[in-house]
Amino acid sequence: MRHMKKSLPVARFSDQAPNSQWATLKALWPYIWPADRPDLKIRVVFALLLLLAAKGATVAVPFFYKAAVDALTGGSGPGAVPVLVIVPVALLVAYGVGRILMVLFAQVRDALFAKVGQNAVRVIARQTFEHIHRLSLRFHLERRTGGMSRVIERGTRGIETIVRYTVLNSLPTVLELVLIAGVLFYHFSVWYLAVMIVTVVLYIWFTFVASEWRIAIRRDMNESDTEANSKAIDSLLNYETVKYFGNEMWESERFDRSMKRYEHAAVRTYTSLAFLNSGQAIIFTAGLTACMVMAGYDVAAGKLTVGDFVMVNALLIQLYIPLNFMGMVYREIKQGLVDIENMFELLGRNPEIDDVPGARPLEVSRGEIRFEHVGFHYDPDRQILKDISFTVPAGKTVAIVGPSGAGKSTISRILFRFYDLSSGRVTIDGQDICEVTQDSLRRAIGMVPQDTVLFNDTIAYNIRYGRPDASEEEVREAARMAQIDEFIARLPAGYKTEVGERGLKLSGGEKQRVAIARTILKGPPILMLDEATSALDSGTEREIQSALARVSQGRTTLVIAHRLSTIIDADEILVLQGGVIVERGRHDALLESGGVYARMWDRQREAEEARARLARAEAEAQDRASLAAALPEAAN
């Protein structure tokens, strides 16, 4: 059964591949108006209704202000309100209530829409996370973890900005401009409207030009931010290497060079923002001043009341809010689009390895593996495997040995279908692995790698990773079979002990036992051991080999071996050299043939004997030194 959660039912963002700003906004719409979430649609509708109510209250407030001023001054002129007809206090209260409603409607609208926006961010973030996991091993070998995390962080933040501003602010701002324009034309004159139109056009033009100029600066700032973060994460992940070579200052200067570039771009960003804000303020203030001068002349001529003069000011100040907001909305959306463009590039990248149409789950009945005339290359000019053919019979163990670069680990990656073949095919129980689902293929194979990297969590979590729904007793049984339960029992926190980043709090042998335990818990019919003991000392290696022997019993096992002493009991040994199988057979037969395998065996035995002699010599020297130190004390 599958133990992972089912993916959220959303449209594949990568299929939409936005290649323009309009296409980007269009691609976001299904997340704002999700087909499978009627509750969120209701929130959107209510948020829009409250938005309209807020804009109505916003335009109504200056009318109450005008009436209150006329009532207090006993204004004269067309439309003046006699002070005895309407109580000024009531008008001022109405003005206050209008302003409260304006704010209240807007806040309730934001509260209602918050769930819609955050849901869109969560869905797209999860989809990005899943898409990254679908990408090929080649991509992940080339990626920079720190830079990618920054891309995702900025992208989700940019999506939140775009969703919030496009739905809640762009259209309402246009509506408010239209309402204010209508009031100016109807209640005052066409000249007031003309001044407003010229002001708005100049304001929008300047905002557009300045924002486009700032986008290049923002993009440069994002690139330098990504670079600096990549270097910081890379350095921290390799903390011990930095310490070994005493290169703290080198790393600090390397990081500072990237931060200096970021500093320069950030200063340019804020300087350009100051220029943009100043220009917007100058354009709007010029338009406001022109209208106020016109209103002042009309009041002096008796065409308008003092209340009308105040109303013009209030309306234009009200106009400045949406105008400034439009400038900010455009600016934020443009910056948001820059922030998410790298995420779109990531989402638009197609997985190198994908299931073929109609792919079926792998059905393992016996577990026989066959490599049939397999050829593979990363680069067409450099062939890695050449016409490789062999069979791993069901329940048997086949080992692959050879010098570094012979292509041993490539075979394990092909079996997991991290790469597709250049030629030939690989089958499991007669089923071509290219024609079955990747998920079912990988669930059928258990892997104990050479370099075990653990999650920064507890020992129990890392063992349970083999089968997330396993019970506590099953986890403990897997640990016992991997011969690590006694070690865990001695730890103060037991199975709840944190292993640290990449498992660095554990020794190499302890990490390998955890890897074996989670493979046992997974219970796969096929086992893959990729030089699982090559980095361990001889004593630990023997203990790990004992645990591996238990795991491989009754399972089809393919072993990539470095130390030949670990595979002498294999049912067949393949010797790989230059991407070609040059020898095959059992251990004894290969030694008798006196070929490549026999020479490798002799070299390893000589090296092991030399290490043993050196260890004995060091022990004897230490004993002599201890004895020499003890004799003078005895004489005294």
Structure description:
- It is built from 19 helices and ten strands.
- It has a six-stranded mixed beta sheet with strand order 6-7-8-3-9-10, with helices on both faces. A four-stranded antiparallel beta sheet has the order 2-1-4-5, covered by helices on one side.
- It has two domains: 13-347, Up-down Bundle (ABC transporter transmembrane region fold), CATH 1.20.1560.10; 369-598, P-loop containing nucleotide triphosphate hydrolases (Rossmann fold, 3-Layer(aba) Sandwich).
- The longest helix is centred in the middle third of the chain and has 53 residues, at 248-300.
- The protein is of the alpha/beta class.
- Helices cover 65% and strands 10% of the residues.
Which helices and strands occur, and which strands form pairs?
Elements: H1 13-16, H2 21-32, H3 38-73, H4 88-134, H5 137-142, H6 145-188, H7 190-237, H8 239-245, H9 248-300, H10 306-347, E1 369-379, E2 382-392, E3 397-401, H11 408-415, E4 423-428, E5 431-432, H12 438-443, E6 445-448, H13 459-464, H14 472-481, H15 485-490, H16 508-522, E7 526-530, H17 538-552, E8 556-560, E9 572-577, E10 580-585, H18 587-593, H19 596-635
Parallel strand pairs: 3-8, 3-9, 6-7, 7-8
Antiparallel strand pairs: 1-2, 1-4, 4-5, 9-10
Helix pairs in contact: 3-4, 3-6, 3-10, 4-6, 6-7, 6-10, 7-9, 7-10, 9-10, 14-16, 16-17, 18-19
CATH H-tier superfamily of the largest domain: ABC transporter type 1, transmembrane domain
Shape: elongated
Strand order of the largest sheet: 6-7-8-3-9-10
Order of helices and strands: HHHHHHHHHHEEEHEEHEHHHHEHEEEHH
User: Count the strands?
Assistant: 10
Strand percent estimate: 5-15%
